[in-house]
Design goal:
Order of helices and strands: EHHEHEHEHEHEHEHHHH
Distance between the termini: 39 Å
Radius of gyration: 20 Å
Largest sheet: 7 strands, parallel
Number of helices: 11
Helix content: 25-40%
Length: 291
Amino acid sequence: MFATLLGALPRPPLGEGATSAELVAAGLAAQSEAGLEPVVDGGLWGDDDAGTVVERWRATADLTDRAVKAVVVGPYSSEVEPGALNAVLQELAAAGCPLVEVHEPVAATIGEDPAARERFVRTQRRLLDGLDASGLHASLAITGGSADRAGIETLLAAPYSSVALDLVRGPDNWRLAAAAPRATGIVCGGMTADETGDESVEVLIYALNYAASTGGRGAARVGIATAGSLAGVPWDVAVRRMRRLGEAVRLAEASPDERAAALDPRAISIRGAALGRSGVRRASRRPKKPS
């Protein structure tokens, strides 16, 4: 199991004279301290340091010893020709990038329209053409709403290794997680990206365990993430949410007794699946040793 971000970060609280590299380094440090990996540049490279996607990925990777993923907006949600983006992905693979996240928020509008489905399939297949043997892990990210009406066969017609789903603004995306092939990784966008919202670790643990249970997927193929960009929240809120994500992974992999001791007891009865019901019951029934 792992924790990561789906989107950008707010500006770290550094002085006005801070360079883009210093801002990115601060964002990376906060992610690392929270236990997140793969990490991202957080959208903190300034306009003056635009460069290419590959140049930004290289510069970010030079600032951390953690795995860094590249992020691109996919051809269905942008005006970029899929062949041009394919060339970018090929260059990332050649540079040693381990993972690229392709954001397709407009996929939430596909629905049952045959023409829209056909266009999505065509653009995604062209985007990933020839990347099978490159070693680059391609992950499809759908945020901002539910795309379940498009069907998993449409969304994963191209050879994506994993799919990241916004489960806060698009709760019906759970149907996609359940329908995805066992070998496909699931990244659960379960941490709110709004300034207010549920930040409880219990919900995140439930999401991780449920995703791992779908189709016998297993813990090694699931992760937890934000349900979109944190750029609109204060820095301290973003840091707290990143720490919640890291804590959720740690507790999800802990023993039932450790989870029961760390989590709000009021959540056990209504979120027992997140704790492992049988383990929690045994822990709660065990008599205390006499003092």
